[in-house]
Design goal:
With 383 residues, this protein is of the alpha/beta class. 50% of the residues lie in helices and 11% in strands. It binds 5,6-dihydroxy-NADP and zinc ion. Zinc ion binds next to helix 7.
């Protein structure tokens, strides 16, 4: 077991109509909010109006920045920072999925110091404060609602990665599973894969942490049992609630206790697909993760065998990989590039970007070289 610090200051409000607690929470934090959201789903599922009602009741003035795109852009962060500075906002409130919330976290760091988002992302700044962030989550997937990470992309530099800083934990996150009932089937499946991938990334990190392994298996089992049921009954509140909680616990620190790090190579490789083809995050993972496990089998064989035992009662590396791949298919996610229309002639372009950005994870035992990446991309095309 490795040494670790458990720190998570986010106050999580979970359940039906829990948004009713937002007004008081916001009132205690300031008087003027920058409200950040995406391309309009929040206007249709009621979360936007409920949030506005709470802010109005609490007497909070609101300035809006909308149009954040999935796979969010650093330009939007910078534009929202300008708007926030002009209007002297004292908190940032995101309504939506990971893209809106991640953008809000970075905006909140940039406003007090008038920084550019990319300088922060690249580690050229050393934050000591941020505006308070509140989040109303409408999509179960990323875990951003209870962690200190923001992932944004820069299309000019062709880079997408995560930045983590303790000042970026949301102060309050509001999770009403009923807001997620409107998430379309494809994004529901992507979210399920994403939460499973977060647990897997941790599982393949360094450090012998038996309790972490058990948490990991439980969260994946929750997704494997209730994920396919949810795909059949997308408006079922209880199923939405189970998946929402699984997604939060998959990346709020719990699974990492006692580990030195996670792996995170598959996330790094998947981000290159998002950069090149605007692939949804979860879809990038359902394609990359099986390919990565197949290629890495000689190096991570004993962990795969343990995973096979924990998840399927069969200590076989191949069984673990096949079991996870077929689970990704059951939640209607693509497992090969051709399923999302990426033909073999894109192979070199993908590889060139992965090599340029030297895609790798945090576990040095699993580091990739250019040849490894070539083999992994081949597996993403395999019949
Ligand atoms: O833009 P709108 O109109 O809001 O539509 C969104 C978007 O099209 C829609 N949506 C969200 N809630 C909905 C809904 N549609 C109907 N009903 C609802 N209730 O879903 C689409 C995807 O939204 P997005 O926020 O992009 O999805 P997600 O939550 O999966 O976030 C993905 C982003 O998070 C990053 C990913 O890389 C990606 O950029 N990640 C963030 C992490 C973190 N901060 O810890 C970790 C993850 O590994 C991940 O990298
Ligand atoms: Zn992810």
């Amino acid at each position: 077991m490795e040494n670790f610090i458990a720190y998570n200051p986010t106050e999580l409000h979970f359940g039906k109509d829990i948004i009713k607690e937002l007004g008081n929470a916001a009132h205690a934090l300031g008087k003027k909010a920058l409200l950040v959201y995406g391309k309009g789903s929040v206007l249709r599922n009621g979360s936007y109006q409920d949030t506005r009602d709470q802010l109005d009741k609490a007497g909070i003035n609101v300035v809006e920045y909308s149009g954040i795109k999935p796979n969010p852009l650093v330009e939007d962060v910078d534009n929202a920072v300008t708007l926030g500075l002009e209007n002297k906002v004292d908190m940032v409130l995101a309504v939506g999925g990971g893209s809106a919330i991640d953008s809000a976290k970075l905006i909140a760091v940039c406003i007090p110091e008038q920084w550019s988002g990319w300088d922060v992302m690249k580690g050229r700044r050393d934050p000591v404060r941020a505006l308070p962030v509140l989040a109303v989550l409408t999509l179960a997937a990323t875990g951003t609602e209870m962690n200190s990470v923001a992932v944004v992309q820069n299309n000019q530099r062709m880079e997408k990665f995560g930045y983590r800083h303790p000042v970026m934990f949301p102060k309050h996150s509001f999770l009403d599973p009923s807001y997620t009932c409107s998430v379309p089937l494809d994004h529901t499946g992507f979210g399920i894969v994403d939460l499973v991938a977060h647990v897997l990334e941790t599982y393949f990190g360094q450090g012998d942490a038996s309790l972490s392994d058990r948490f990991a298996a439980s969260i994946i089992q929750e997704a494997m049992e209730f994920g396919p049921q949810l795909m059949e009954k997308p408006e079922d509140y209880t199923l939405r609630a189970r998946i929402m909680l699984a997604a939060t616990t998959a990346l709020n620190g719990l699974v990492s206790y006692g580990r030195l790090n996670g792996d995170w190579t598959s996330h790094a490789l998947g981000h290159q697909l998002s950069l090149l083809f605007d692939t949804a995050h979860g879809a990038s993972l359902s394609i990359v993760f099986p390919a990565w496990m197949k290629h890495m089998k000689p190096r991570i064989g004993s962990r795969l065998e343990k995973l096979g035992e924990d998840l399927f009662g069969n200590p076989s590396a191949d069984h673990a990989i096949e079991g996870l791949e077929s689970f990704f298919k059951r939640v209607l996610c693509p497992v090969r590039l051709k399923e999302i229309g990426i033909a073999p002639d894109q192979n070199e372009k993908i590889l060139a970007l992965m090599n340029k950005n030297k895609c790798n994870g945090k576990n040095p035992d699993n580091h990739l070289n250019d040849l490894d990446r070539e083999k992994i991309v081949e597996l993403m095309y395999a019949e």
